[in-house]
Amino acid sequence: MSVVTARINAIGTAVPGHDIHQAFIDWAGKRVSDPREAGLFSRMATRSGIAHRYSVLPKGRDGGSPVAPDGFYADKILPPTSARMELYAEHAPALALEAIRKLGPLGSVSHIVVASCTGFVAPGIDQIIAERLGLSPSVERLLVGFMGCYAAISALRSARHIVRSDPQARVLVVAVELSTLHLQPESAIEPLLAMLQFGDGAAAALVTGKGPGLAIDAPFAATLPDSGSLIRWSIGDQGFAMHLSGAVPGRIAEALRDDDFRRTLTGGVDPKAIDGWAVHAGGRSILDAVSHGLSLNEDALAISRQVLHDYGNMSSATLMFALSGFLDRQPKHGVALAFGPGLAAEGFRFHGID
Questions:
Q1: How far apart are CA 322 and CA 320, in angstroms?
Q2: What is the number of other CB atoms lying within 10 angstroms of the CB of residue 90?
Q3: Which of 101, 242, 292, 325 is at a distance of 20 to 30 A from 317, taking alpha carbons?
Q4: Does the pLDDT of residue 230 top 90, yes or no?
């Protein structure tokens, strides 16, 4: 008996309308008291490869940013986690629904898989989205929570398993992240540079066993040894704090130079023969590490770099933004790859299908 091929038929993406990238740079730069470190921060911000990052946080009365005198982060003591979760409950479902609308007609959705690590609410965001879409109360739901930047891989991989076990399934996959709810009162360069990467965004995909799109081939997962402390995401009294070590890019590049690790990613295909690299745009240094570690051509990660430039790192949603750039390209050999807490690499191979 043949096994059905799960495929991504469509991807929709959405970001809020408030670009906060430059406002953050201005705010963060003033927090670095040492002139040499302030100069370093400025240079790193310029070299980040990011031009825009968007936030659900409203503009102030004068059109200012969330850190303006009347913005969400205006007070010396930043808002508690409870206030940030209230905004998550309000804005995360709305942004997710905006991305879903861009998919076009959904048909009869049988399953919904939602990935999100920047907020918590109960009833869950999966339930809220299903209700607002008017889906059947019998729709099967799965919430992938707090996995970080590779959560979209887990969500799409789960959709693949569902379709392979039920060829008639129509799985709605959603990744929505509101990273800008978690600004921290830091003044050290490393956490400020970590926060410099993140913005808000949502992506939705329809995964079925029929029609054109991107076929989801063999998934893979690998955890780098002795790396658990390099990426951490902890819940505090003032939001969720991201701990992102500067050693991460080096560890990734080192792992990618290992022949066994490369075979895990590519299935034995020469990395230069891969014509569809959808790499999570975790930052310029992450993309450079992948490019150098695999000795890729200069333009191999062009789509991921464009996502980073236009939106920054939107945690789990970012990978789906990159995948959307390949829907019309029909790649013969594709690799979707993301890194996150662990330090873990998650992904799957894919190819275009008519």
A1: 5
A2: 12
A3: 292
A4: no
